[in-house]
Design a protein that fits this description.
Elements: E1 2-6, H1 14-25, E2 30-35, H2 48-60, H3 66-82, H4 87-101, H5 108-133, E3 138-140, H6 143-146, H7 161-168, E4 176-180, E5 183-185, E6 191-193, H8 199-209, E7 214-219, E8 224-225, E9 237-238, E10 240-242, H9 243-251, H10 262-267, E11 272-276, E12 285-288, E13 300-313, H11 323-333, E14 347-353, H12 359-372, E15 377-390, H13 400-410, E16 415-420, E17 426-432, H14 436-447
Parallel strand pairs: 1-2, 1-7, 2-4, 3-4, 7-11, 10-12
Antiparallel strand pairs: 5-6, 8-9, 11-12, 13-14, 13-15, 15-17, 16-17
The protein binds adenosine-5'-diphosphate (ADP) and aspartyl phosphate.
Adenosine-5'-diphosphate (ADP) is lined by residues 7-10, 36, 39, 197, 219-221, 224-225, 227-230, 254-256.
Domain ACT: 389-454
Keywords: Amino-acid biosynthesis, ATP-binding, Coiled coil, Diaminopimelate biosynthesis, Kinase, Lysine biosynthesis, Nucleotide-binding, Transferase
Binding site for substrate: 49, 120
Length: 454
């Protein structure tokens, strides 16, 4: 049996949801359907999740909410109309949203998560109503009743082990289960959402829980490409990719599949297939434990912005026992996680995601590093991107790092940091954000573009 997740673009309009229904009808093993909130219908459109975030912030600031509420409700109304559904489902959605907006907002994080999650929750209700209306035996299942238990981390919750046991009960369902993605509940019953794009995570948890034969992730592209198709024109399609490779790539920019969605299916050894709702007969990309046959040393190149570098230098740092630990502890106490720590004899750089910083946090960190660690120099630099070259074949291939560095130098860009992942499937370059796209293009030309002879 299969768990099939349909992303925001796949459920953005009535026509898209009709395609989803046809996909479900065409294969009886598609028993678990995980859905996102309605996404973008066209490039300049707004995702319902973003409309809901605007709505939550207006409510929190005691601003007028009716206009923002209508923007959300109109999306569902349009979909319901296009699917010939009765008004009742829109009334259910409106009542639900009004309840969420008028709820106690003293716990701001809970209030925002609760409104954000309504996007998938109400869409799942609507889609199961539509499935039933066309004769499919389907039921909406709430993550609360099903027991998708998560930790108490607002906006970035993680599933707890008991979630898998609870969800495994759904295996016995005689009907198609329509399950909203993106959120779960703490042991105390509080709703918490996953990271943005987290419906992929819900699908993966469900697939691992019910021991699915396949986890299908339906989106709006025929496959995962070896580079972002929004930057590189017509990139090579990836037929098969390993969990390790996909984790590295999706972590650093392949937004097509959330990196946290890999762990549950990886542990349960469930293959994943990324497919296109708009072209379901295309084979898609398979994510597997091991690839067979011959393949290129490089599988993909990703790029992601939003990184900062904390640079610290102190003469004889290499001789000082515990320097690195103390430095990282200062970050830990500011609730900051880090990505890489390239170092020299007398200096160290800590690469981290900029969204975790505030001006106040930066000031405190620099002060402590100078006063407590007696660093001679400590400062933050911002606006960096990470370019990650990934491939299982990299460790048997000498010269790849040199080829990549030479390609980057052809763009005239400076490399701020190089890190060869200890897993030996990745090589990361820290570069200034303004150079990100031209570097990605040049690396693509180096490793993937066909060489013309003659
Ligand atoms: N390497 C890549 N391969 C395929 N798609 C990619 C890649 N990198 C970025 N994307 C983007 O990811 C998009 C699909 O992800 P997303 O917008 O989250 O879809 P969904 O709404 O289905 O969840 C594609 O439209 C594409 O622009
Ligand atoms: N709707 C949520 C969760 C999600 O997974 O969406 P999508 O499938 O559109 O990436 C978001 O926008 O973050």
């Amino acid at each position: 049996m299969k768990v099939s997740k349909f992303g925001g673009t796949s459920v953005a309009s009535a026509d898209q949801i009709k395609k989803v229904a046809a996909i479900v009808q065409s294969d009886r093993s598609r028993k678990f359907i995980v859905v996102s909130a309605p996404g973008k219908r066209f490039d300049s459109d707004k995702k319902v999740t973003d409309l809901l975030i605007d709505l939550a912030s207006a409510a929190l600031n005691h601003e007028e909410v009716e206009t923002k509420l209508s923007l959300v409700l109109d999306r569902y109304k349009e979909i319901a109309l296009g699917l010939d559904l009765e008004q009742t489902i829109c009334d259910v959605i409106e009542e639900d949203l009004r309840l969420r907006i008028s709820s106690d907002s003293s716990d701001v994080e809970y209030f925002v998560d609760n409104i954000k999650a309504s996007g998938e929750d109400n869409n799942a209700k609507l889609i199961s109503t539509y499935f039933t209306s066309i004769g499919l035996r389907a039921q909406y299942v709430s993550p609360k009743t099903a027991g998708l238990i998560v930790n108490d981390f607002p906006e970035r919750a993680l599933a707890l082990p008991e979630a898998y046991e609870n969800l495994s009960e759904l295996k016995n369902s005689n009907e198609i289960v329509v399950f909203p993605g993106f959120f779960g509940f703490t042991k105390g019953g509080l709703l918490r959402t996953f990271d943005r794009g987290g419906s992929d995570i819900s699908g993966s948890i469900l697939a691992a829980s019910v021991h699915a034969d396949l986890y299908e992730n339906f989106t709006d592209v025929d496959s995962v490409f070896c580079a972002n198709p929004r930057v590189v024109n017509d990139p090579v399609e990836i037929e098969e990719i390993t969990y390790r490779e996909m984790r590295e790539l999706s972590y650093a920019g392949f937004s097509v599949f959330h990196d946290e969605a890999l762990m549950p299916v990886y542990k349960a050894r469930i293959p994943v297939c990324i497919k296109n709702t708009n072209n379901p007969s295309a084979p898609g990309t398979k994510i597997v434990a091991e690839r067979k046959g011959k393949h290129r040393p490089i599988t993909g190149i990703s790029a992601d912005s939003g990184f900062s570098i904390l640079y610290v230098s102190k003469y004889l740092m290499n001789r000082e026992i515990g320097f690195g630990r103390k430095l990282l502890q200062i970050l830990e106490e500011e609730l900051i996680s880090y990505e890489h720590t390239p170092s020299g004899l007398d200096d160290i750089s800590v690469i981290l995601r900029s969204h975790q910083l505030t001006a106040e946090k930066e000031r405190r960190i620099i002060k402590r590093v100078k006063e407590e660690l007696h660093a001679e120099e400590a400062h933050f630099r911002h606006e960096f991107s990470m370019i990650v070259v990934v491939g299982e074949g990299m460790n048997n291939n000498t010269g790849l790092a040199a080829r990549a560095a030479t390609a980057i130098s052809r763009t005239g860009s400076n490399i701020e940091m190089i890190n060869q992942g200890s897993s030996e499937v990745s090589l990361s370059f820290g570069v200034h954000r303004s150079n990100e796209n031209k570097i990605l293009q040049e690396l693509y030309n180096e490793f993937f573009a066909p060489v013309s002879v003659g």
